[in-house]
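Example record

The entry below shows one chain as it appears in the dataset: sequence first, then structure tokens.
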Amino acid sequence: MDWMVERDLNLALKYAASSNNLTLAKLLLEPYKTLQQIVGISGDITNPNNTTPFQDDIRLVKDIDSAIIEACRSFGTVEIVRFLLRYSPERHMHLISACSGGNLDVVKMLINEFYIDPSLESEYGGRKNAALRTACDFEKIQVIKYLLEDPDVLNEEMDYLVNGFLHPDYESYKLVKDAIDKKNFGLDSNIYNLGIL
């Protein structure tokens, strides 16, 4: 793929994603229908012949991932994100992007339709609950409330999240602390039981 074409395709896909232009996204990706086979249902990058995909195909998948991140962060609709995900092997990263942008509809779709576990750790760090941590970082209260309803999100790391990660002046700190106080999330650590929260 020519670098100019690749750059223009990347920019056009980002524009289509951020402006929720599903028609344009479909038109741009029409010549690359085989990528759906390369990416596969599971999200693994393999092709039907079980051989390594062409480098151009892998680059294009990265461009599509970039467009999905744009859609997730900029309140892209569920429809355009769902369409672009057909071409993307990465899913958890897009949940993190939707959490950072506060795109609750996309967060719900990724968790409920694509079965992304919101308690997973970030691919760049080793801490669990990357989705909740990201929503807290960006003060996305509706996303925080939704994630707190998922029992998978609440685990042994919640104490650290509240006591070490969130600043007490943040609205998200108060929200998470209040949720912990009102519900039994199975927090067994000394910090919680000593009433330090």
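Notes for this example: Confidence is low (pLDDT under 50) at residues 1-5, 40-48, 51-55, 184-197. Residues 3 and 9 are 10 Å apart (CA to CA).
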